[in-house]
Amino acid sequence: MNRSAPAIEARDVRVTAHGHTILDGVNLSLQRGETAVLLGPNGCGKTTLARVLMGYQPVRSGTLHVLDKTIGATNLHELRQHVRLVSSTTALGGQSGTLNGLETRMRPLAAVLTGIDGSLMLTRNLPSQDEDRAMHLLRVVGLGHRETSAIGTLSTGEQRRLLLARAMIRPPELLLLDEAAAGLDVAGREQMLLTLRLLMAAGDRPTVLMITHHVEEMPPDTDRVFLMNSGRILRSGTPAQVMTPELLTETFGCRVYVRKASGRYTLEVLPEAWLDLLPETDRIGL
């Protein structure tokens, strides 16, 4: 594996489903060791891109390399040993009624240990050092006190942090976070982001691609931002280059103002912006 090659290299990637174009010529390059954010509105193709990167969604045309392996011409099972995905839904490979495919009756320690080989159940005895690392990770993500609880009884925020620990039991080369903080309240979101920072400091730092439509979730140490809409990457660059009112207005389709404080960005929607979203016939008298 060529470690000087980008972690992700997409060239004119196109995906269609049911006669609709979902990804329309995506071009994206992410270098190893970078922390990046893919930012765009709902329905713009972000989750489809995550599915493509994991090999769950076929590509109609274009080329896609993940960790120097060509998607469509490589052993996906082997590749997934080096790529981990944490998602807010089970849509990327889990089963209905489970937590990303894990049995909800499992205990947290066992759930984390399944991440060693990407299985959904423990099928073999593991060395004590693996159990020690799993227990350490549970403490890092703030779940040491829930060691004896069934994972189905954990709160949504606790479950997301559990999945982060599972993803890091064997430090991946590439970590994909698809709307990983979706559905969490403010405290839960901040716990999730802090957990990510602690995990990055606790082991080998992977390349990270965070996929979200919330600017507030962008980590302070973000190296690169990709702005997406209508199945295309509109712009990419450092946060200072692309986190501007003009580019984010184009990305989200409504007029916004951008604020930055303590290394974190927030969006403020201008009071009149909602009028732009109404058809002309509905604006009469407003």
Structure description:
- The protein has helices at residues 46-54, 76-79, 108-113, 128-140, 156-168, 186-202, 239-242, 245-252, 273-276; strands at 8-17, 20-30, 35-39, 61-66, 69-70, 83-87, 174-178, 207-212, 224-229, 232-237, 256-261, 264-269.
- With 286 residues, it is of the alpha/beta class.
- A hairpin with a 2-residue loop joins β9 (224-229) and β10.
- The chain starts with 7 loop residues before the first strand and ends in a 10-residue tail after the last helix.
Briefly characterize the structure.
The protein has 286 residues and is α/β, with parallel strands linked by helices. The protein has a single domain (8-282), classed as P-loop containing nucleotide triphosphate hydrolases (Rossmann fold), CATH 3.40.50.
Proportion of residues in β-strands:
25-35%
Largest sheet: 6 strands, mixed
End-to-end CA span = 60 Å
Low-confidence sequence ranges: 90-97
Order of adjacent strands in the largest pleated sheet:
6-7-8-3-9-10
Mean pLDDT: 86
Q: Structural class given helices, strands, pairing? A: alpha/beta
- The CATH superfamily bears the name P-loop containing nucleotide triphosphate hydrolases
Descriptors for this entry?
Rossmann fold, 12 strands, four-stranded antiparallel β-sheet, six-stranded mixed β-sheet, single chain, 286 residues, 26% strand, alpha/beta, 9 helices
Protein topology:
Elements: E1 8-17, E2 20-30, E3 35-39, H1 46-54, E4 61-66, E5 69-70, H2 76-79, E6 83-87, H3 108-113, H4 128-140, H5 156-168, E7 174-178, H6 186-202, E8 207-212, E9 224-229, E10 232-237, H7 239-242, H8 245-252, E11 256-261, E12 264-269, H9 273-276
Parallel strand pairs: 3-8, 3-9, 6-7, 7-8
Antiparallel strand pairs: 1-2, 1-4, 4-5, 9-10, 11-12
